[in-house]
Write a structure and sequence with these properties.
- It is a single chain.
- The strands form six sheets. Strands 7, 8, 9, 10, 11, 12, 13, 15, 16 and 17 form a ten-stranded mixed β-sheet that branches.
- By secondary structure, the protein is α+β, with helices and mostly antiparallel strands.
- The protein is elongated, with a radius of gyration of 29 Å.
- Among the domains are: about 190 residues, Rossmann fold; about 90 residues, GMP Synthetase, Chain A, domain 3 (2-Layer Sandwich); about 80 residues, ACP-like (Non-ribosomal Peptide Synthetase Peptidyl Carrier Protein, Chain A, Orthogonal Bundle).
- Strand 5, helix 5 and strand 6 form a beta-alpha-beta unit.
- The N and C termini lie far apart (about 110 Å).
- Belongs to the ATP-dependent AMP-binding enzyme family.
Length: about 575
């Protein structure tokens, strides 16, 4: 199925399932390389699409039906309601998720997996025909399965959000108010953008046709459900202050495509504010979550281990990836069934709830130290001046791994990198403080509304973009120091007002700078570099060392007054 967000999308899905088939979403917004791989891997026999997209579909061997232009042929078919013939264990969709090898992997999901998801969660949510949902996410992201069938299985209304509106928090807020949406599903990152819009002063009515931003009274939400990525609870404080924690009810759900969208459930309240823990709650009733050690033995309460999921939500496995399926979908040591090995770290808390602690592969090793990136991100989330942040490992220079923190300040707050560094310095050892910080207006999102880590700019890109403020070295001392910095930091040019640490410097690189400076007979210390972080300030120190102020000679005088 390769269509834009439209009525044809839902018609296509229903038609495929009614015919007893399974759908493979080919989001036209995805890169060509990814679409080529999915077509080759899935070997689909038929593509339902729209005429304007035919030319953009990569080369394939499948037959094509254009849902928007071939109705004359379609209407010649029988109009009676055909028997589907689909059984609970038949395949319903194949959704491709990112793989650690760089190639996506197709997850095989049955009808029974989806139907039981709603049967298991119905006692909590009480979805009904009066509910209004949004299809906000790409239909190639499994959050869409929850959005589509949460509306249709209960006779509710589904608002298909146009792509450009899904990328504009202002327009999406207007849509929520205008369409009187009651059930909203968001990644935490996307919802934080909505909070920013809601906090901002109202704008004049827009010319896009939605009629201007709605007010608090226009909002009809009864449920906001988070999923897709870890939730930083303190980012919800502005929302709770304005709306409380009951209307709407906010819920955090943890899930994975391989275990059919959602695994756990946790209602949120204002009492959770101030916590740095990412609590994901309890398993859905027909799922089991085990925290196991490397020997597949349960760990004690409060001890960190890897999360394994069992129960009715565990899917078939991966298409054409038998070895990977056997590696991730393992025989359960507790029952005659399968467990899915999530690769996520967690622990059970004293009240029986789960705390999510990040990915196993999010633990990195730099200069011999093991570092959990999630720990740094959790501390940054505590800083009141920071709206959102992410920490990654970059290796822009081969063999030189470094931590980079990307930070979005709170609205109307001017935040300096030195302030961020000093905040972390009081809480973390030196080796866990990012080498470089990049301040952004917003974090880039992918088509699934998650932070797109691959799209984060390199510190060097940011440095080049600030070239308009570049002030070249003027004196020989400034020129020598600038060359030393550029060599150590691996950048092309350094201005006299550039900050050593903002360019990617750290104490290790600082030692290298001092060593090279001393070879040039500049008598500098590391403590001086920490205090004087620009070329101009350092050059002034060196100049004073090389050219001390002349001593004024005083003429002889008598210590005894002549009088």
């Amino acid at each position: 199925l390769c269509v834009k967000r439209s009525l044809e999308m839902i018609i296509g899905i229903l038609g495929i399932l009614k015919a007893g088939g399974a759908y493979v979403p080919l989001d036209p917004e995805y890169p060509q390389e990814r679409l080529i791989f999915i077509l080759e891997d899935s070997q689909v026999k038929l593509i339902l699409t729209q005429e304007k997209l035919v030319e953009s579909i990569p080369q394939h061997q499948a037959s094509i039906i254009c849902l928007d232009t071939e109705w004359e042929k379609i209407t010649q078919e029988k109009t009676s309601n055909p028997e589907s013939g689909a059984k609970p264990d038949n395949l319903t969709y194949i959704i491709y998720t990112s793989g650690s090898t760089g190639q996506p992997k197709g997850v095989l999901v049955n009808h029974s997996h989806v139907v039981r998801l709603f049967a298991a969660t119905d006692p909590w949510y009480h979805f009904n025909s009066q509910d209004v949902w949004t299809l906000f996410h790409s239909y190639a992201f499994d959050f869409s399965v929850w959005e589509i069938w949460g509306a249709l299985l209960y006779g509710g209304r589904l608002v298909i959000v146009p792509y450009l509106i899904s990328r504009s928090p202002e327009l999406f807020w207007e849509l929520l108010c205008q369409e009187k949406v009651t059930i909203l599903n968001q990644t935490p990152t996307a919802f934080r953008s909505l909070i920013q819009v809601e906090k901002a002063p109202p704008n004049p009515p827009c010319t896009g046709g939605l009629g201007g931003r709605g007010t608090k009274d226009d909002l009809k939400l009864r449920l906001v459900i988070f999923g897709g990525e870890a939730l930083e609870i303190n980012g919800l404080q502005p929302w709770f202050e304005r709306y409380g924690d009951q209307h709407p009810q906010l819920v955090n759900m943890y899930g994975i495509t391989e275990t059919t969208v959602h695994v756990t459930y946790r209602p949120l309240s204002m009492a959770d504010l101030g916590s740095t823990a990412s609590v994901i709650g309890r398993p859905i009733p027909d799922n089991q979550v085990y925290i196991l050690d490397q020997y597949l033995q349960p760990v004690p309460l409060g001890v960190t281990g890897q999360m394994y999921v069992g129960g009715a939500g565990v899917t078939r496995g991966y298409l054409n990836r038998r070895e990977l399926t056997e590696e991730r979908f393992i025989p359960s040591p507790f029952s005659p069934s399968k467990l899915y090995k999530t690769g996520d770290l967690a622990r059970y808390l004293s009240k029986g709830e789960l705390e999510y602690l990040g990915r196993i592969d999010n633990q990195v090793k730099i200069r011999g130290f093991r570092i959990e990136l999630g720990e740094i991100e959790a501390l940054l989330a505590q800083y009141s001046a920071i709206w959102e942040s992410v920490v990654v490992v970059r290796e822009d220079t081969p063999g030189d791994k470094c931590l980079v923190g990307y930070v979005v300040p709170q609205r109307s707050i001017t935040l300096t990198i030195e302030e961020i560094r000093q905040f972390l310095k009081a809480k973390l050892p030196e080796y866990m403080i990012p080498n470089t910080f990049v301040i952004l207006e917003a974090l880039p999102l992918n088509s699934n509304s998650k932070v797109d880590r691959r799209a984060l700019p390199s510190p060097e890109q940011i440095h080049r973009s600030l070239a308009d403020n570049f002030v070249a070295p003027c004196t020989p001392i400034e020129e020598i120091l600038a060359l030393i910095w550029a060599e150590v930091l691996g950048i092309e040019q350094v201005g006299i007002h550039d900050n050593f640490f903002e360019l990617g410097g750290d104490s290790i690189r600082g030692i290298q700078v001092i060593a090279k400076a001393r070879k040039m007979s500049f008598n500098l210390s590391l403590s001086q570099l920490l205090q004087h972080q620009t070329i101009q300030e350092l050059a002034s120190l060196v100049s004073q060392e090389l050219n001390p102020l002349p001593t004024q000679n005083t003429e002889k005088f008598s210590l005894i007054s002549e009088n």
